[in-house]
Amino acid sequence: MATVEITREHALGKEEAKVRAQKMADKLATKLGAECRWQDDELTFQRSGVDGSILVGEDSVRVAVKLGMMLSPMAGMVKGEIEKALNRYLV
C-alpha cells in the first residue's frame, strides 16, 4: 500500500476552503466513481482500491490518500494530480 499526503496553505478561510474542497470532491466522484461524505471539517472519499480524506483548516488543507496494492505504482501520478487540483481550487 502507498500513501500520498499533501498539506497546502491557503488564505480563503475555512468555509470557502470547504466549498472548494467539495468542488474537488465532486470532480473526484465523477472521475473515479468515489463515494464522498463530510464529517465536521473532514471530507472522506472511498472507492475500490482507494480511500482518503481532505481535512480543511482555517489556513491549510491536508489531503491524504491510501492506494491499494494495484494502484500503488501510480502514487507519483496521483500526487501530481492532487497537487494540480489544489493549485486550481485553492488559489
How would you characterize this protein structure?
- The chain has helices at 14-32, 75-89; strands spanning 2-9, 35-39, 42-47, 50-56, 60-67.
- The model has no long low-confidence stretch (mean pLDDT 92).
- The protein has a single domain, classed as 2-Layer Sandwich (TATA-Binding Protein).
- The protein is globular.
- It has a 5-stranded antiparallel beta sheet with strand order 1-5-4-3-2, with helices on one face.
- It is an alpha+beta fold.
Which short descriptors sum up this protein?
five-stranded antiparallel sheet; TATA-Binding Protein; globular; 91 residues; Polyhydroxyalkanoic acid system family protein; PHA_gran_rgn
Strand content: 35-45%
Outline the biggest β-sheet: 5 strands, antiparallel
Going across the biggest sheet, name each strand in turn.
1-5-4-3-2
CA-CA gap between termini: 31 Å
SSE pattern: EHEEEEH
Query: What number of domains?
Result: 1
Range of helix content: 25-40%
- From the alpha carbons, calculate the radius of gyration and give it in angstroms: 12 Å
Indicate the CATH class.
Alpha Beta
CATH architecture: 2-Layer Sandwich
Mean pLDDT: 92
Strand tally is 5
CATH structural fold name: TATA-Binding Protein
Characterize the overall form: globular
Structural class assignment: alpha+beta
Low-confidence stretches: none
Organism: Halopseudomonas formosensis
InterPro entries: PHA_gran_rgn
Pfam family, one: PHA_gran_rgn
Protein name: Polyhydroxyalkanoic acid system family protein
